[in-house]
Amino acid sequence: EDKEKVYSLICENRARFGRPVYMTLADVLSTGEVWPVDFFKVESDGIMVASAIFYRNHSEICYAVFWGDNDEGRPLRAMDFLLLNLFCHYKNAGFSFMDLGISTENGIPNEGLLRFKESHEALSSLRYKFTLEIKKD
Question: What predicted TM-score, i.e. pTM, was given to this entire model?
Answer without folding.
Answer: 0.84
